[in-house]
């Protein structure tokens, strides 16, 4: 097996209760590894701690117990090997598109010529070159999300952490963005952990899908997706096996018997 | 609203606006005479215009206006800088905000112009008490807007910068400072008009120069046209200050959709 890029070892996360007494366990004893070039999806009910795991992986929060490792090194804080992307594009309205793509590399003090080169290459790759001088409000939601992906890739991370990156765009745009992401991940041989609520998205984009339980979140199943062409989610979607996997995930999540009352009010994760 | 509808609304609105001005000036010129209002109560437009020329030539109108402009400018700039500085400071330190907010609130509730006599007692009939009143009155809208802006920056934006390993200074200059610009300009707009109020009150209370002084001088002589001239000049000074802020805002916030900036002057 190839190198492990991202690993969670027995990670537990507790948050203090709003009342001030006691603690709420968001995730408990989570262990898994993502290998080099692999795309793994994490699915589970709202509030099961998926986003908490992502924050731990990116070094923004420290786990209560256990460790996260990137490239075999313990994550002690934000590090240059990991970049994340959220549902919100988080583009800075006062920066042009090309300046937004350069945001991360600028923070990391990459020389101007180099960051300009990287940004322009990425924008060209995403068919956004003609918009490089535009401001975010002049672009559609799907284009903005593509700019956010370019910004994430510009820092050339080993690992991408993606938290429901396409859940705010319409269904058709989502499929186009999924294709772009899949091709990019394949070409650049990036490792990715994808959090999603969309079971079809998890199946079509990933090599493996991890299923999490209700809070406190633990990993209850792991399903390897054995469909060819990981870089072509649209073809994968047509594959009859995709529906079988989705059905299996629905069973594992017990969606047929879940009631809305069991869902927490807000997605605390 | 599409562009064509918008530009036609602009054209009609501008025409109506000019019409209102013409009606107003005509009413000012001939209204008092028709209604039998004596000229020492409401002098007609032409009398005020004559008085303007007279004040310009013999009453140092330019000097008085100049002094007021300098006071307004100094008060506005210093008050804004102070307000922005304290706003960022409190915005970044929740402890400081909790500790100081009751006093800031008290000072905000206290009518700032009431401090004018006190400042004149302290500093005499100089320009300083007027500038100080203006600083005090400009401070609050700027401070409150900056504080709220820094407080409400999207935490995910901060996390994004942190994930790229941004330092505290980088987070401030790259995220918090630019995010606070639109609310800060809203505060500066209010501050620009309030600065004139602060300065005039200071001049009314004590001194022998400035448009506020000219106002009381005219009143003392029962020279109603001179009072009108002073009011008009004060309005012009306030208008220019406001316009200056709007122009700066359009430059700085050029990245926002056109109608979000400087709208509804």
Features:
heterodimer, A: 269 residues, alpha/beta, Rossmann fold, 2 domains, 6-stranded mixed sheet, 4-stranded antiparallel sheet, 24% strand, disordered C terminus, B: 265 residues, mainly alpha, MetI-like fold, 80% helix, flat
Structure at a glance:
By secondary structure, chain A is an alpha/beta fold. Chain A contains 9 helices and 10 strands.
Strand-helix topology:
The complex is a heterodimer of chains A (269) and B (265).
Chain A: E1 4-16, E2 23-35, E3 39-43, H1 50-57, E4 65-70, E5 73-74, E6 82-85, H2 97-101, H3 103-107, H4 112-125, H5 141-154, E7 159-163, H6 171-187, E8 191-195, H7 199-205, E9 208-212, E10 219-224, H8 233-238, H9 240-253
Parallel strand pairs in A: 3-8, 3-9, 6-7, 7-8
Antiparallel strand pairs in A: 1-2, 1-4, 4-5, 9-10
Helix pairs in contact in A: 4-5, 5-6, 7-9
Chain B: H1 3-35, H2 45-58, H3 61-92, H4 94-109, H5 116-123, H6 128-151, H7 155-163, H8 168-179, H9 181-205, H10 211-220, H11 224-252
Helix pairs in contact in B: 2-11, 3-4, 3-6, 3-9, 3-10, 3-11, 5-6, 6-9, 7-8, 9-10, 9-11, 10-11
Describe, in plain words, how this protein is organized in 3D.
The complex is a heterodimer of chains A (269) and B (265). By secondary structure, chain A is an alpha/beta fold. Chain A has two domains: 4-81 and 158-262, Rossmann fold (3-Layer(aba) Sandwich), CATH 3.40.50.300; 92-156, no CATH class. Chain A is built from nine helices and ten strands. Chain A has helices at 50-57, 97-101, 103-107, 112-125, 141-154, 171-187, 199-205, 233-238, 240-253; strands spanning 4-16, 23-35, 39-43, 65-70, 73-74, 82-85, 159-163, 191-195, 208-212, 219-224. In chain A, the strands form two sheets. In chain A, strands 6-7-8-3-9-10 form a six-stranded mixed β-sheet, with helices on both faces. Chain A has a four-stranded antiparallel β-sheet with strand order 2-1-4-5, covered by helices on one side. In chain A, strand 4 and strand 5 (73-74) form a beta hairpin. In chain A, helix 5 packs parallel to helix 6 (171-187). The radius of gyration of chain A is 19 Å and the shape is globular. Chain A starts with a strand and ends in a 16-residue tail after the last helix. The model of chain A is unreliable at 265-269 (pLDDT under 50). Chain B contains eleven helices and no strands. Chain B has two domains: 1-37; 43-260, Orthogonal Bundle (MetI-like fold). Chain B is mainly alpha-helical and 265 residues long. Helix content of chain B is 80%, strand content 0%. In chain B, helix 3 (61-92) runs antiparallel to helix 4, helix 3 crosses helix 10 (211-220) and helix 9 (181-205) runs antiparallel to helix 11 (224-252). At the A-B interface, strand 6 and helix 3 of A face helix 7 and helix 8 of B.
């Amino acid at each position: 097996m190839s190198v492990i890029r991202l690993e969670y070892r027995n990670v537990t996360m507790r948050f203090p209760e709003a009342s001030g007494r006691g603690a709420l366990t968001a995730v408990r004893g989570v262990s898994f590894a993502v290998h080099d070039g692999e795309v793994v999806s994490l699915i589970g009910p709202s509030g099961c701690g998926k986003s908490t795991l992502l924050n731990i992986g990116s070094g923004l929060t420290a786990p209560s117990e256990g460790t996260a490792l990137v490239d075999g090194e313990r994550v002690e804080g934000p590090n240059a090997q990991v970049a994340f992307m959220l549902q919100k594009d988080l583009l800075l309205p006062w920066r042009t598109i090309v300046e937004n793509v350069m945001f991360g590399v600028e923070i990391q003090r990459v020389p101007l010529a180099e960051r300009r080169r990287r940004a322009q290459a990425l924008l060209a790759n995403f068919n956004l070159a003609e918009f490089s001088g535009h401001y975010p409000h002049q672009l559609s939601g799907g284009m903005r999300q593509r700019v956010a992906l370019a910004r994430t890739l510009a820092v050339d991370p080993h690992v991408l952490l993606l938290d429901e990156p396409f859940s705010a765009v319409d269904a058709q745009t989502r499929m186009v963005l999924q294709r772009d992401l899949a091709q990019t991940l394949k070409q650049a041989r990036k490792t990715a952990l994808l959090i999603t609520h969309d079971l079809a998205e998890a199946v079509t984009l990933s090599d493996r899908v991890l299923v999490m339980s209700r809070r406190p979140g633990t990993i209850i199943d792991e399903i390897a997706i054995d469909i060819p062409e990981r870089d072509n989610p649209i073809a994968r979607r047509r594959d009859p096996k995709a529906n079988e996997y989705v059905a299996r995930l629905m069973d594992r999540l017990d969606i047929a018997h879940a009631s809305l009352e069991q869902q927490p009010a807000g997605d605390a994760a | 609203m599409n562009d064509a509808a918008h530009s036609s609304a602009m054209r009609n609105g501008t025409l109506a606006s000019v019409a209102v001005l013409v009606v107003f000036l005509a009413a000012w010129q001939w209204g008092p005479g028709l209604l039998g209002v004596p000229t020492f109560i409401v002098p007609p437009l032409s009398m005020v215009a004559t008085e303007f020329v007279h004040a310009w030539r013999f009453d140092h109108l330019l000097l008085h206006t100049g002094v007021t402009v300098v006071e307004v400018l100094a008060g506005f700039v210093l008050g804004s800088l102070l307000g922005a500085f304290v706003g960022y400071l409190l915005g970044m330190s929740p402890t400081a905000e909790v500790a100081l907010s009751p006093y800031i609130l008290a000072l905000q509730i206290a009518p700032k112009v009431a401090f004018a006599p006190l400042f004149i007692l302290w500093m005499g009939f100089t320009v300083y008490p007027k500038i100080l009143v203006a600083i005090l009155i400009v401070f609050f809208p700027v401070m409150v807007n900056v504080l709220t802006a820094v407080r409400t920056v999207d935490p995910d934006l901060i996390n994004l910068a942190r994930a790229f390993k941004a330092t505290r200074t980088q987070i401030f200059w790259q995220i918090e400072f630019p995010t606070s610009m639109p609310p800060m300009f809203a505060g500066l707009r209010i501050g620009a008009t309030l600065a004139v109020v602060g300065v005039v009150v200071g001049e009314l209370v004590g001194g022998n120069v400035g448009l506020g002084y000219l106002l009381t001088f005219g009143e003392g002589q029962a020279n109603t046209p001179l009072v009108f001239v002073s009011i008009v000049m004060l309005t012009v000074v306030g208008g220019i200050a406001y316009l200056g802020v709007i122009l700066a805002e359009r430059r700085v916030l050029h990245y926002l959709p056109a109608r979000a900036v400087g709208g509804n002057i």
